[in-house]
Structures are given as structure tokens and as C-alpha cells.
Amino acid sequence: MTLTILGSVAVLALLxxxxxxxxxxxxxxxxxxxxxxxxxAVASLEVFxxxxxxxxxAAVAAALGWAWLFLGLILIFRLLGLYLFEVHLTARxxxxxxxxxxxxxxxxxxxxxxFVTLRLSFPRxxxxxxxxxxxxxxxxLGLALQPILSNFFAGLVISIEKPFRINDWIKVGDLEGRVxxxxxxxxxxxxxxxxxLVIPNGKLADERVLxxxxxHPVHMERIKxxxxxxxxxxxxRRVLLDCAAAxxxxxxxxxxxxxxxxxxxxxxxxxxxxxxxxxATAPRIASDLRARIWESLHREGIVIPYPIQTLxxxxxxxxxxxxxxxxxxxxARLYVAEGPEHGRSLALDGGAPATLGRSRACSLPLxxxxxSKEHLRLAWEEEGWVMTxxxxxxxxxxxxxxxxxxxxxxxxxxxxxxxxxIFESHVAxxx
Length: 431
Hints:
alpha+beta, six-stranded antiparallel beta sheet, 19 strands, rod-shaped
């Protein structure tokens, strides 16, 4: 008897060891692990019954019959499950199935098969009592393992609904990272610091999850830039857009844009909105862009003010033409806001006339196709700074209206074709 038991146990141990070794090398052995382990147990029972003929009673024969029936059915069902999940749905239909769905489905199939085969092999066995006992046991275990079960079902819902997938970048509360793994109980995130963050699935079900990769991974990054009140917004806009265009990782489509957010206590707050391909790279791109913005603003003489309040006492501004005798015209400048020469400017200090056109002899040469050789002249007269069209072919527009002669006021817009220039007269700008 003892030798028989030892022999049966040895057979079981050898078969289990062989299955465990083959699982590491062969795909089909891994997929059929449970039926193979059941087969090992049935084989050990068969060895025991053959070595001890005296124990071959009707009950033992019925138990072996149930074991072989259960083994055959679960093997068939497992093969059908492999065909359904791995071949039909995944390979042919191209569906991406949740990892938990096949496992949960096959577990339910195994349980139902066990109860049905027990009823067929042992007609007098009261399966109802067994089911009731299982229900009571499940209730007790459910109350004891409520957090684990909550995480399990939350993981099952996540696998079915797919609010996020592997490699998606998500944010849960104040935590964010790339999804590295989704298990039956937890979700693993890889943070920016390359740390592994484990979040229970139950917490994910209760929190609002922000998926940066749905419906596409393109992400908007916002960069706020405070600028002095004396700086015209169109100048700041041009500098910020040029900085965005100089950073290779900033996407051209959608195009960057600049918004004037608010007038703060010590500055006008601008916001540069850019688009990047991956939110994981957004902090580095924003850092490079801020450094370039700082350099460009200082190069253009645009002031980023400190958060302080300054009391200034100054004389009232002069209106054009109201200067006293002997005084020259106020400092003025013509800034090219749009067109091939955008960003250039022309100083109008001293009252000397200035000409604009395609000729290189002009004070501000233009490559605008609609500009004439000498298109217009700016000169200081009694009324103030006056724009005079020099008989150009395509004409000149001031604030959107055709004009042959116009007395300019601060921030008037002079247009020649697609080139738009802004007249600035109350703030002296560095060259």
C-alpha cells in the first residue's frame, strides 16, 4: 500500500515537473497548462488503481470515470477557447482582447463543466447542497476579500471598456505616467522619473482618468509669458511665433498661436499655445522654448517685468503737430508686422523723410511683389507724420482703406499688398 502511494505520487511529481519544464519552451503547453495538470492527476489516480486492484470499487470506478470525462471536456473546451480568442477574434478579426477576458471565461467554463460532469457521473449526488455551500463560502470570502474583488472587477471593466491601453500616457488625480501593465488587480504606470507606480484598479474606477493619447497622442502645451505694458501685442506675437518655429519638436500642424490672456498688475499676460507629438516630451520642449523666448525678448528689447508696482511721474504725451518751436518731431518707428520683411523696423528720428519700395536706395527696401520702386514717403509736417503715396501701381491702404495721403496716428496700419506695417510714435524702440 505504501509503495503504491509513493509510486502514484512519484508519477504525479514527474508529470508536473515535465509540464512545468515544457511550459517555458512551447506555446501550446503554456496554453494547455490546466488540462495537462488535471491529466497528470488523473494519471496518478489510474496508476494507483492499477497497482491496488482491491481498491477498484464502484465508487473508485465512478470517480475515475468522472475524472476522465472532466479531462476530456475541459481539453475540448480549452481548444475551442484557443481557436475563438487566439485565432478567430485576434488573428482573423484583428481585435485586441483584454488579457483578463480569456482567463475569466475559461475559469467559468471549467466550473460549470465540473458541476455538470459530477451530476452525470454521480446521479445520487446532491449537487444543490454543494452549490449552496459554495454560495455561502463565496459570500464569506467575498466579504473578507472585498477590496481584492473590487480591484478584480474594476480590472475586468477596464479590460472590456479600454479607457486606456498599454503605452498610453494617463493622469489619475495628481499622478501621471505611461501605462506599463494592466493586471487583474493593479495598473502599473511608468512615471517621468522612470519609477514604477502601482495603482489599484478600484482607485482607477473611482477617479477621473485623463488619457492624453485618446483620440490621438498630439498634445497642446501652454506657455505663459508676461510682458511690459509698453510692448505692443503684435510685436510680442511675432517674437513668440518665431521662437516656436525655431524649435524642431513643435508641430507645424496644428499651427502655434498666441493669445492675450489678461492685463495683470505689472504685465500683459500672453499665452503661446503649441502642439507636440507626445505629452511625455512636453516638459523638455517647453523648457527649450522658454529659454529661446527669453533670449529673443531680450534681443528685441522687450521687457519681462518683475512683479512689482512702480510709480512713474512723466509729462503728458504730445499730440502730433503740437510740439513747441525749436523742438524736433517725437521719436517714431515703422514696424513690419506681416510680409516677407516681418520683424524689421525703420526708425523715424530727426524728422528726415523716409521712402519705402523695392529699390535698394529706399530707407526700407521691400521684396513685396505689389510694391513699386519708390512706393511711399513718410515725412514730418505741421500736422505730424504724413504718409504720401508716390504714384504706386497697386496703391497704399491705411487701416484697410485706400489712401494717397494720410496723417498718421499711433498704431495706424499701412498695407502694401500683403505687407502690413504699423506706425509707432509714442514709444522709442531700440534699433
